């Protein structure tokens, strides 16, 4: 007969030993926040900030970066698309876009393409535009206006990045169309291509630069003088 049936005290049992827990396995997706994860790659490239980097005489700025997907048989292939603008801050500017499986490689491709598409933009006194201009690309519409000294660079988003690497210090810019960064950058470049300097207008019309400068002092802009020709 057992002790419980006889009404006696229950038999003593050994205390349960606590189970030791091993090292906790890493959470799924936690590597994205580390230095080797996706977000860590976006933050920097080659030890330089992703927003701006100086290479020799050229300065490049990262305007936008997106993750894109290509649907294939059996799933999706993910890649990154980067939009970069390059300039020397002395009147040259260009843009380019690149796509690759890794962020640094996409930025490198975009930078190389931007260097091949540099254009020369005449600047007034090395700080502002000679005259107002408008640009359009697709649904993107932008307006650029020259400004007196001390105005500053009044622009935002992709337009500001283009004007900063161009070297403009005083300008007023406004976007009236799409906010897509690709359209805005291309529309801004389109407006800058229409810029004319007094020397260019004088050579085209067979006049002297002094005559055009005198007309500017009278109130006429270079854009109005160029339209007359």
Give structural notes:
- By secondary structure, the chain is α+β, with helices and mostly antiparallel strands.
- It has 2 domains: 48-119, Double Stranded RNA Binding Domain; 121-228, Ribosomal Protein S5, domain 2 (2-Layer Sandwich), CATH 3.30.230.10.
- The protein has 8 helices and 11 strands.
- The protein has helices spanning 3-6, 38-43, 103-116, 158-166, 181-193, 198-205, 209-217, 222-228; strands at 44-45, 48-49, 52-55, 58-72, 75-87, 92-100, 119-120, 133-137, 140-146, 153-154, 171-175.
- The strands form 3 sheets. A 5-stranded antiparallel sheet has the order 3-4-5-6-7. It has a 4-stranded mixed sheet with strand order 8-9-11-10.
- A hairpin with a 2-residue loop joins β3 and β4 (58-72).
- The longest helix is centred in the middle third of the chain and has 14 residues, at 103-116.
- It is elongated.
- Mean pLDDT is 78; it is low at 29-50.
Overall SS class: alpha+beta
For the CA atoms, what is the radius of gyration? Answer: 31 Å
Mean pLDDT: 78
Please give the CATH class of the largest domain.
Alpha Beta
Tally of domains: 2
Strand order of the largest sheet: 3-4-5-6-7
Helix content: 25-40%
Distance between the termini: 122 Å
Shape: elongated
CATH topology of the largest domain, which one? Ribosomal Protein S5, domain 2
Q: What letter string, H or E per element, gives the SSE order? A: HHEEEEEEHEEEEHEHHHH
Biggest sheet overview: 5 strands, antiparallel
Query: Beta-strand percentage?
Result: 25-35%
User: Which ranges are low-confidence, i.e. pLDDT below 50, for 5 or more consecutive residues?
Assistant: 29-50
Second-tier CATH architecture of the largest domain = 2-Layer Sandwich
Q: Would you report the number of β strands? A: 11
């Amino acid at each position: 007969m057992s002790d419980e049936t006889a009404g006696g005290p229950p038999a003593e049992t050994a205390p349960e030993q606590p189970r030791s827990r091993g090292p906790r396995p890493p959470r799924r997706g936690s590597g994205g926040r580390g230095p080797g994860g996706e977000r860590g790659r976006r933050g920097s490239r080659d030890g330089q900030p992703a927003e701006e980097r100086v290479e020799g005489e050229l300065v490049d700025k990262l305007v936008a970066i997106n993750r894109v997907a290509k649907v294939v048989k059996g799933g999706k292939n993910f890649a990154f698309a980067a939009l970069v603008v390059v300039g020397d801050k002395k009147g040259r500017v260009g843009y380019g876009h690149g796509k690759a499986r890794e962020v640094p490689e996409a930025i490198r491709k975009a930078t190389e393409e931007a260097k091949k598409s540099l254009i020369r933009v005449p600047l007034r006194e090395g700080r502002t535009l000679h005259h107002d201009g408008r640009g359009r690309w697709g649904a993107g519409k932008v307006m650029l206006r020259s400004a007196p000294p001390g105005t500053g660079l009044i622009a935002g988003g992709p337009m500001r990045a283009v004007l900063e690497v161009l070297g403009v210090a005083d300008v007023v810019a406004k976007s009236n169309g799409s906010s897509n960064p690709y359209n805005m950058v291309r529309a801004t470049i389109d407006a800058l291509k229409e810029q004319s300097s007094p020397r260019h207008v004088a050579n085209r019309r067979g006049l002297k630069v002094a005559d055009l400068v005198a007309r500017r002092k009278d109130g006429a802009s270079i854009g109005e003088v160029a339209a007359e020709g």
